[in-house]
Write a structure and sequence with these properties.
five-stranded antiparallel β-sheet, alpha+beta, 2 domains, two-stranded antiparallel sheet
């Protein structure tokens, strides 16, 4: 074989070997590009996720992405645009150790970002928020411990529902006394006028003999009158009865003209179904106690100093929310205190004596019994005021008291009320926040979640840098498909016709999920 022929043959063999090698290198590169697309896709999403709203994390320990980026206008394209910036920035970085001079072996670009799926914290009437919180709190409160709390709430609520309204009972008793007194005076006058008092006088003497000796002596203090006087003063200010210095109550006011439940909120495009149960409600209430302010633990740098009270009352004025809480606490404590009094034989005998002194002249056991129930209610009412004073001062009050824990004296109710004393501390008692959680347990989930979102939003926008932020712009889940494109590299160095080579395409889905 001639020398020239050998040279040509060797060149051809070398070309085929190199082409085969380039094909193998391209196959390896293709696999590397696929892995590179996975890596860069995750990296781009993580870069976007790292830009979570900082204030909500610092104050409420919840991660959310502001889809409006601190502007008033929400557009999901803001997020996809931000993602493309991060992807392009990451893809253009040099890959040291994996390149020839001026040649990136894994050169790739973002060719398309498809319309994302996303979920906002306000979606499903705020159920998303409740699920986020419950997932966050599950590690702190096991289901067994939550069951005990739930049972306590239910028992106390049943007690409240089964107790007669104190004010109605007092009004009914006073009406019965006045009606009986008027009827007696009318009867005696008529008999005196007609000179026919003989039979009536005998009957009256018989009734008088059955009346306790105290009936003829005026009471030092009428419990029913005491409560009526208190109720009159309450028409001016309930808080004045339980707060030592009412002038120190916060006067903050929240602008709720565009509250979550009143405006048309932005909505995500993920169909979300929440799983609501009592365990989730308990977890949410434990969360709000730790992260929301209240009268005993106010936060002056927040839109409301008493946020727990707003969750219960829902009023714009802070004072009105606190007043509503006090009224509800009064109802709960009256129910508990009446329950205790009915179980204490000694105190029931005291109430019976007072009832006989007030209504014994009627000679009607039914009226005397009605008055006794009213006396019990009045006694429980005054004790309840002292309970609330103690709670607002940071004390603890038992759900149902014992004899040793009882504070007021039936003979000196007005004195104990006017002296601004408070109930005895109960070692087995509950704090003010515990009672509020107990009331909130029976609040509708939708109402609770909307008010929580309002608090978060109002706290957020009072900061100048976040004044245009809104809670219905906060993304908690974001799923997006990104398509990457890359050109073949090694085949272009072989004898393969590069014009017929197609661009590589890698489609990857990644997500941001702030729900634990």
């Amino acid at each position: 074989m001639k020398k020239g022929s050998i040279t040509v043959f060797s060149a051809l063999c070398m070309s085929f070997v190199l082409s085969a090698l380039f094909v193998l290198l391209e196959a390896a590169r293709f696999y590397g590009l696929s892995q590179y697309a996975d890596w860069k896709g995750r990296q781009g999403v993580e870069c976007v996720a790292a830009e979570y709203q900082p204030y909500l994390w610092e104050e409420f320990h919840l991660l959310m992405l502001d889809g409006s980026y601190s502007t008033y206008f929400f557009e999901i394209g803001n997020v996809t645009g931000r993602m493309k910036e991060k992807l392009d920035e990451n893809l253009n970085q040099k890959n040291f150790g994996w390149q020839f001079p001026d040649m990136n072996l894994f050169q790739m670009e973002t060719s398309h970002i498809y319309e994302p799926k996303y979920l906002l914290v306000t979606d499903a009437d705020g159920e998303v928020l409740l699920d986020m919180i419950s997932a966050y709190m599950k590690k702190n409160l096991p289901r067994e411990a939550a069951e005990e709390i739930r049972q306590r709430y239910i028992n106390q609520n049943d007690m409240k529902n089964n107790t007669t309204n104190v004010e109605e009972t007092i009004d009914q008793a006073k009406e019965s006394i006045e009606s009986a007194r008027a009827e007696k005076e009318k009867t005696e006058k008529a008999k005196t006028d007609n000179g026919k008092a003989e039979n009536g006088r005998q009957e009256n003497e018989s009734i008088a003999n059955r009346t306790n000796e105290k009936d003829t002596q005026p009471l030092e203090e009428n419990p029913l009158d005491v409560v009526n006087e208190i109720r009159k003063s309450m028409s001016l200010s309930t808080l004045g009865l339980v707060v030592e210095n009412a002038g120190e109550i916060s006067t903050k006011r929240m602008n709720l003209a565009e509250a979550i439940e009143k405006r048309t909120c932005s909505e995500g495009n993920i169909n979300y179904e929440a799983e609501s149960d009592w365990y989730r409600k308990i977890l949410v209430l434990e969360y709000v106690e730790s992260n929301f302010s209240n009268y005993c633990s106010p936060k002056e740098n927040h839109a409301y100093s008493y946020e727990l009270e707003y969750l219960l009352g829902g009023h714009e004025e802070e004072r009105k929310n606190l007043e509503e809480v006090v009224n509800r606490l009064l109802l709960y404590r009256c129910a508990s205190n009446v329950t205790y009094l009915l179980s204490d034989r000694e105190k029931m005998l005291q109430s019976e004596t007072i009832a006989a002194a007030l209504a014994g002249f009627t000679g009607n056991p039914a009226i005397i019994k009605t008055v006794q129930i009213a006396v019990v209610g009045a006694w429980a009412y005054i004790e309840s005021i002292q309970d609330i004073r103690a709670l607002l001062m940071g004390g603890k009050i038992a759900l149902v008291k014992s004899k040793e824990q009882w504070t007021t004296d039936l003979s000196h109710l007005l004195q104990s009320f006017q002296s601004q004393t408070r109930a005895k501390e109960c070692s087995n008692g509950l704090k003010y926040q515990d009672y509020l959680k107990q009331i909130l347990f029976f609040t509708k989930d939708g109402t609770l979640s909307c008010r929580m979102l309002n608090v978060m939003e109002q706290d957020l926008i009072q900061n100048e840098e976040y004044k245009d932020c809104r809670m219905d712009h906060m993304i908690v889940c974001f799923r997006c498909e990104v398509e990457f494109a890359a050109e073949p590299l090694f085949p272009r160095l072989s004898f393969i016709n590069s014009e017929k080579l197609k661009q590589y395409s890698f489609r990857r889905e990644n997500q941001i999920n702030y729900i634990p």
